[in-house]
Amino acid sequence: MIIIILNERRTKILIKIINANLPIKVDELASLFKVSNRTIRYDLNKIDEFLKHNNLPQLIRKPNIGVKFSNLIKDKNEVLKLLGNVNFYHYALKQNERINIILSDLIGYRDYTTINNLAEKLMVSRPTIINDLKYVRRWLQDHDLELESMPKYGIKVLGNENKLRKAAIELIMETMDIDKALDIIKTPIYKKINVGMDNEIRKLFADIDLEYIEECIKMAERELNTIFSDIAYTGIVIHIAIAIKRIQLGKDIIIPRDELESLKNTREFKVALNIAKMLEDHFHIILPIDEVGYITIHFLGSNITNTKRRENKNQIDYRKLAERIIKTASSLLGMDLLKDRQLINGLTDHLIPTIYRLKHELDLKNPIVAEIKNNYGKLFEIVKHALKPIEDYTEKKLTEDEIAYFVMHFGAAIERLNGQEIIRPNILIVCSTGIGTAKMLSTRLKSIFNVNVVGTVAYHQINETLKDRHVDLIISTIPIESKKVNTVVVSPLLNDNDIELIKQYIVELKQRHEFKHITYESCVNKQFVENIIFKGYKLGLDVIKEFHDELTKERIEGLLLHILLMINRLAFNSTYKMENIHEINTSSNVLKRLKSIFDRNGIDIPESEIVTIIQYFK
Questions:
Q1: How far apart are CA 334 and CA 425, in angstroms?
Q2: Are residues 109 and 198 in the same domain?
């Protein structure tokens, strides 16, 4: 029997063509998949072979127009159905995909399996699996787990149940984009087709009613008056699904008694108890109180997109911690962010779940951490330094993903300043003759050079001060040596020669600051545009999720595009100016649901925009 294999790229190309409404040109596909036009043409030929082998219509190619597939829904469904059931006979796995599937197999079932079984399943040789297992062992060791090998039985994973579940969640979140993970736990109107590891995860949860778990989480959102972010939402659903599978296998976790007693005093624990009862009735299992506690921890550690979280007795401590972090960052940035109440409140709210995550070793992935580091490398390092009090308090290291979320808070605050902050060189005065002389020197420096004196210290305080403050220049009345910062030695009374020497340094520093400010402002503008795109995309998804059963595919696509453009118009104050606006039926069910979505996203939509959106529902 002849077997036609589609590799990862060809599978994605076929799905792209099927999902497209219009023909796609070869050069567009080449650009999208970062290969040559010639490679794409070769891939298209192989796709045609695959389609022909499965008695399906081949691709339609038109010169100067592009490539498309049959318009018949029946044909498209047949291909999607085929791809949805693709096994490893039809799909050429890469090494990293094999490693992830082996990990999923070992962690998901926690029973012995053999190298021969894995080789047969993945359609590769025994030596290939043996080589892959080297990387599997390394991954498991990084997660405090080990791979046991026993003659006549095979191999299996050993380790703490808590660590094992954490590893299972991380494996899923590591190997899948958030939209793929959401696709697996949801049943959207247009289902993405994934192969390889994605299919393996689907099989892992095949006997778990994920939709019911989803309903439980939605109930939790209502009771907690909170909306979980997609990443948190997905993580909670996957955690509960894995917990159910492990409980069915007789495996459960233990939480320290004092921690459990502390959790029982939270509102989240009461909600978790209600959910536990629903899960017990639906899945015919018993959830120990420790499992309820662990669900509570996930609620408390979830990042949120909207909340009216009530203040608790520890709230003031979180606020003080937030202010301390902002003060450090402000000093290093050379700008005052402590007046930004929005930053203080946002950071305070973000600290609460962050500290829960750190204490309980819950990972939170940030899908744009690479972009944040790339675009805001300096700000990333400054925020990382400013967040050290969190690490000291929890005795845990913050991941780059976590730091990136804080960077977003600070980036928004800097954007709000909108270039109005005048950046002045930061000067540290070192004086050995007493506070009176130091104050006089400070006053003269400020009046002559318009600098920011960050402090006056004794010689032995220099190194400690430089750890917490950004200093551009040290002005000292005694000779000192500092490898980190330029130093000028002056008379306590500041003579003309001293002034001329300082002037040279100040001019150079101000030029450097101005350049840095311009460069940073351009980055902020870029972030502003990215924020607009993200906001429009999220709002569009929320609207489509609410109304997908009531709109055609064409109207959904049109509405999504309209919302993206609308958010852009709102950002730049260029909304529709419509005369003779038709009266809106304020009792309309559609209008009420739309306004609810807009309110949740914190967006005030003008009447002219609402009129145009309503047209999509007629």
A1: 8
A2: yes
> Distances in Å between the alpha carbon of 136 and those of 19, 176, 183, 335?
35, 18, 26, 48
- If 0-12 CB within 10 Å is exposed, 13-18 middle and 19+ buried, where does residue 20 land? middle
- CA distances (Å), origin 545, targets 186, 492, 541: 11, 69, 6
The encoded tokens of residue 542 equal 């929320």
Confidence of residue 594 (pLDDT cuts 50, 70, 90): confident
Q: Total domain count for the chain? A: 6
On the question of pLDDT at 439 being above 80, the answer is: no
Query: Would residue 513 count as lying in a domain?
Result: no
Q: Which residues contact 8 (CB under 8 A, 6 or more apart)?
A: 91, 92, 94, 97, 195, 196
Cβ neighbors of 317 (< 8 A, separation 6 or more) are none
Boundary of a domain, candidates 417, 449, 480: 417
Q: Is 578 left (phi over 0), alpha (psi -120 to 50) or beta?
A: beta
- Structural domain including 36 reads 8-84
Q: Tokens representing 114?
A: 């053999």
Residues 308 and 401: their CA atoms lie apart, in Å, by 25
- Using alpha carbons, list the distances in angstroms from residue 602 to 232, 330, 464, 526: 20, 28, 43, 22
Per-residue pLDDT tens digits for 84-126: 555 444 455 678 878 888 888 888 766 789 999 888 878 788 9
Q: How confident is the model at residue 576 (pLDDT cuts 50, 70, 90)?
A: low
CATH number at residue 345: 1.10.1790.10
State how far the Cα of 213 lies from the Cα of 77, in Å rounded to an integer: 28
Q: What is the pLDDT of residue 423?
A: 58
CB 588 within 8 A of CB 596: no
426-430 sheet: strands from edge to edge: 452-457, 426-430, 473-476, 486-489
Alpha carbons 184 and 250: distance in angstroms, whole number:
25
CATH classification at residue 110: 1.10.10.10
d(CA 172, CA 104): 8
Would 324 be classed as within a structural domain?
Answer: yes
Residue 510: inside a domain: no
Are residues 65 and 39 part of one domain?
Answer: yes
Could you read off the pLDDT of 10-61 as tens digits, one per residue? 888 988 888 777 889 998 899 888 888 889 999 999 899 888 888 889 999 9
User: Last residue of some domain: 262, 281, 307?
Assistant: 307
Q: Angle at Cα 536 formed by Cα 530 and Cα 539, nearest 5°?
A: 140
